[in-house]
Write a structure and sequence with these properties.
Elements lengths: L2 E7 L6 H16 L2 E7 L6 H5 L3 E4 L9 H20 L5 E5 L4 H4 L9 E5 L3 H10 L3 H6 L2 E4 L2 H11 L6 E3 L14 H10 L7 E6 L8 H10 L5 E8 L3 H13 L5 E5 L13 E4 L8 H8 L4 E4 L5 H4 L5 E4 L4 H13 L1 H18 L2 H12 L8
Parallel strand pairs: 1-2, 1-4, 2-3, 4-5, 5-6, 6-7, 8-9, 8-11, 9-10, 11-12, 12-13
């Protein structure tokens, strides 16, 4: 009989953390080593995908009834039953993805069951989530920590006094990075769909359109280049306050004609055929999966200094690390790459090579499995 294992995700939305966990579970399920169960703290677009890989549970489940009192009662009872089910199951181990599942972990009563947490947050996020009370349970219950980057490990160990031997750095990973190739015809079709000239230089970003991802940096850079044949495409916008604020500023800056804001989509990878340069405008990003994907499509990357794991991956041959918040330098760098075909080709080749070497799921995911099986030491 296969061992039962439980994987926990803070939600099932199409964002970096859940998608990384989904990749890991697909890889793990192909090995057929465990009987997999998955608990989503909150639901989301990837819920069906998770459900294909094992028994799926939703902790904060929305129950639709007319009476709000009955609704609250039924939802509280559902959460209680989920925890009871988990606590009475003999798990081989529990794997919690992100530091924000503490509200669930603190309710678990699983003596002698190792709990592994894969951490993807940094200093600012710790401050934010501490206020929400979702971190303490992770720190109290975790047996061993996988860290998405060295800066994640540094922030985690220093802030919570975690021994280094209880950590292991494992960078984000994707399946078959060597197979990702930009196709010119796909770019041509997307340019037509988005009303972008085919000869334009296209700068892209993917993620939530918010302050932490640097949406204002992205917008202000586009404003500096609005008189150039440079277009800016962001994939991941939602109809919320951030979008309204972004468009308000873009309209007053008179640069909306050079910006395309697109919603998150299951087929988001198609836009890597469109993008010439990836501008990771984030203020804080531990080691974003979109960076691993962009690099696998031979797309040079710009990121900010002191912003996270991008600084560990990028070097002068494959991208640029710009002083934090210096959008003038970003705009100058974009034009440099746009106008220097030889430099652009060299960087495209180098970042592809580095992505294949650093982001293969068969290497990085196996580090996690080897550690769980007692075959890998801690620290770096």
């Amino acid at each position: 009989m296969k061992q039962k294992v439980l994987f926990i995700s803070h939600d099932g939305r199409r964002s970096g953390g859940p998608m990384l966990l989904l990749n890991f579970l697909k890889w793990l399920s192909e090995k057929n080593l465990f009987e997999i169960s998955i608990l989503l703290n909150h639901s989301g677009e990837l819920e069906k995908e998770f459900g294909k890989l094992g028994k799926l549970m939703i902790y904060n489940k929305n129950i639709s009834v007319r009476s709000w009192r009955l609704k609250r009662f039924l939802e509280n009872r559902h959460r209680t039953n989920v925890i009871k089910t988990i606590n009475k199951t003999p798990w081989e181990f529990v794997f919690s993805n992100t530091i924000t599942n503490g509200n669930i972990l603190e309710k678990l009563n699983l003596s002698n069951t190792p709990i592994y947490s894969y951490i993807h947050e940094m200093a600012f996020s710790y401050q934010l989530y501490e206020k929400r009370g979702v971190i303490n349970g992770t720190i109290d219950k975790t047996t061993f920590y996988f860290c998405g980057s060295s800066i994640v490990k540094k922030d985690l160990t220093e802030r919570y006094k975690i021994p280094e031997q209880n950590t292991l750095v494992v960078h984000s990973f994707i399946e078959n990075p060597e197979k990702n190739i930009r196709i010119p015809q796909n770019r041509k079709l997307l340019c037509k769909q988005l009303d972008i000239p085919e000869d334009a230089f296209i700068v892209g970003m993917m993620g939530a359109l918010d302050w932490r991802k640097g949406s204002d940096f992205f917008l202000n850079t586009s404003n500096l280049l609005k008189d150039e044949n440079v277009y800016f495409v962001w994939i991941g916008k939602r109809d919320n306050q951030y979008y309204d604020e972004f468009m308000y500023d873009a309209t007053l800056m008179n640069c909306t004609t050079k910006i395309r804001l697109l919603p998150s989509t299951e087929d988001y990878k198609q836009y890597f055929h469109l993008i010439d340069l990836f501008f990771l405008s984030s203020r804080e990003d531990p080691y974003p999966i979109v960076m691993t994907e962009a690099s696998s499509f031979s797309i040079p990357i710009i990121a900010f200094e002191n912003s996270g794991g991008s600084n560990e991956f990028l070097d002068p041959e494959c991208g640029f690390v710009i002083p934090y918040g210096n959008i003038l330098k970003v705009s100058e760098t974009i034009l440099e790459l746009k106008n220097n075909e030889e430099l652009y080709t060299h960087m495209s080749q180098k970042i592809k090579q580095k992505s294949v070497k650093n982001h293969d799921i068969n290497v990085n995911a196996n580090k996690i499995l080897r550690k769980i099986n007692g075959e890998e030491s801690g620290s770096f």
